[in-house]
Amino acid sequence: MQRLFAMNRVPRLITVFAVAVLATAICLGQAAPAKTSYTFHGKVEAVDESAKSLKVNGEKVAGWMDAMTMSYKVDDAAILKKVKVGDEIMATVYDGDMMLHKVMVMSKAAGDAKSKK
């Protein structure tokens, strides 16, 4: 009798386990909310290829960070060979992330026009 009772519980346990696995998969499979992106502007003060970072005197980015000079990691180390001290850069930054993404060196004309404002 006890053996029959135990055998009747097996399908129920399998069903409960399958539902739990399915619920977990659904929860983990949902896309994370997209992080807010911001445009970052600043002047390069140092390039550190070994640390894959730039020391930048960055302008205030409303909603992200006040103006300050600090070192930032870059998402693409190849940019470190193109950027020079004194270059004006533009990059994308994201909430909760202190890395510079899609770094671009601004043309000298764009930098000069900006400083005349």
Strand count, sense and barrel status of the largest sheet are: 5 strands, mixed, barrel
Span of the ends, CA to CA: 90 Å
* Top CATH class of the largest domain: Mainly Beta
- Structural class per helix/strand content? alpha+beta
Low-confidence stretches: none
Q: Can you tell me the CATH superfamily of the largest domain?
A: Copper binding periplasmic protein CusF
Going across the major beta sheet, what is the strand order?
A: 1-2-3-5-4
- Mean of residue pLDDT? 82
In the CATH hierarchy, the third-tier topology of the largest domain is known as OB fold (Dihydrolipoamide Acetyltransferase, E2P)
Order of helices and strands: HEEEEEH
Content of β-strand: 35-45%
How many whole angstroms does the radius of gyration measure?
26 Å
CATH architecture of the largest domain: Beta Barrel
Number of domains: 2
Share in helix: 25-40%
Number of helices: 2
Number of distinct beta strands: 5
Based on CA inertia axes, which overall geometry fits? elongated
